Amino acid sequence: MRALLLVLDSVGIGSAPDAAAYGDEGADTLRHLLQFDPSLKLPTLWSLGLGHVVNRTTGNGVAASYGQMREQSAGKDSTTGHWELAGVVLKEPFAVFDQFPPDLVTAIESEAGVRFLGNYPASGTQIIADLGPLHLRTRQPILYTSADSVLQIAAHEDYLPLDELYEICRIARRHADPYRIGRVIARPFIGEPGRFVRTDHRHDFSMRPPPTVLNVLAEDGCPVKSIGKTFDLFAGEGITEAHPTVSNADGMHQIEEVWAQTDDGLIFANLVDFDTMYGHRRDPAGYAAALRQFDNWLATFLPQVGDDDLLIITADHGNDPTFRGTDHTREQVPVLLKCGGRTGSLGSRPTFADVAATLAQHFECGWPSAGQPLCSK
Fold first, then answer.
1. 88, 209 contact by CB (below 8 A)
2. Where on the phi/psi map is residue 221: left (φ > 0), alpha (ψ -120 to 50), or beta?
3. Is there a single domain that holds both residue 84 and residue 225?
4. 177 with 41, same domain?
5. Kindly report the CA angle at 287 between 286 and 289, in degrees rounded to 5?
6. Where are the alpha helices (H) located in the chain, listed in sequence order?
7. Are residues 86 and 129 in the same domain?
8. Per-residue pLDDT of the chain (377 residues; tens, 9 = 90+)
9. Distance between CA atoms of 274 and 364, rounded to whole angstroms?
């Protein structure tokens, strides 16, 4: 048995019922992109039912089941979304900071033997533009955060080698655990003042999750293969084989290769460019182009999905590039399901954990999930 769980990072489809509590009422990533670019056509996703989910259909039949899911967990970050997809509902959100506490910063600095610049919320590209020249003179890494539960550390690859930056982040991860910080992120960059560019060597160091359906599958001898940042988001827990990526295009290529090599097991893939390259940077034109690219690729991949295979396409949160600010948006997400030839509406699902229940059912393993399977066997 094979399954592919494919997360289109940040492709939300409208404000969640509790969006106002997050300051996100009115956010609607996909519909706003369709309004921004009336020429945006996604025929392959429409053929799976996505048009029905966003109330934009041609009236034609669909080749999959379709619906939407809302998040039960508190939060709107990637870690929270992915953990709930794997069956863990967080009642307490990860902590966010405008400035990291002195005790935490001092503990990291003392063990790592560094002194940080920054320690305030900022756009990653802006803070390296502002503090990068001082970093080059001092070799002091740049510490910053955002509206998500992230502790980010930036450094120039020629002035602080990657292995040193990653070790500082590992130290920070240990000290960040008691503060319930979801992710520590290494943010390397290159270039000269005025022309700094972040590289593809980003690495996320997440908190270790409670047991998920991934652990159950792996313990049952089922291969669990990650593509993209999935491995990082689960701190490797329940993952038996990891395939990092540098872009959506690379991720799609690796999905094809790993799928062709897999006779049995779960492939859990994340395509992150929607979020990092276009959502956070509030670039709707780039976001629309990335969706076109994915839709074109999906048309070539779908014939490789057999009747006995399971395909789930969904998202982890929203990041409306037409919305105010530069942060994630609390949105519902689509869920498209190819499962044994079934078609039709899945309705509005109360939790992302329905995905975990569906995986447990497909692989016939015991999982006490908060969710319910998306399809019957």
1. yes
2. left
3. yes
4. no
5. 65
6. 29-36, 43-47, 50-53, 78-85, 102-112, 124-138, 162-176, 213-219, 230-233, 248-260, 273, 284-301, 354-362
7. no
8. 899 999 999 999 999 999 999 999 999 999 999 999 999 999 999 999 999 999 887 667 899 999 999 999 999 999 999 999 999 999 888 999 999 999 999 999 999 999 999 999 998 889 999 999 999 999 999 999 987 899 999 999 999 999 999 999 999 999 999 999 999 999 999 999 999 999 989 999 999 999 999 999 999 999 999 999 999 999 999 999 999 999 999 999 999 999 999 999 999 999 999 999 999 999 999 999 999 999 999 999 999 999 999 999 999 999 999 999 888 999 999 999 999 888 999 999 999 999 999 999 999 998 877 899 998 76
9. 33
User: Of 206, 233, 262, which one is at a domain's C-terminal end?
Assistant: 206
> Domain containing 15: what range?
2-93+207-362
pTM (two decimals): 0.90
Q: Hey, CA dihedral for 342, 343, 348, 353, is it positive or negative? A: positive
Give residue for tokens 């309004």: 35
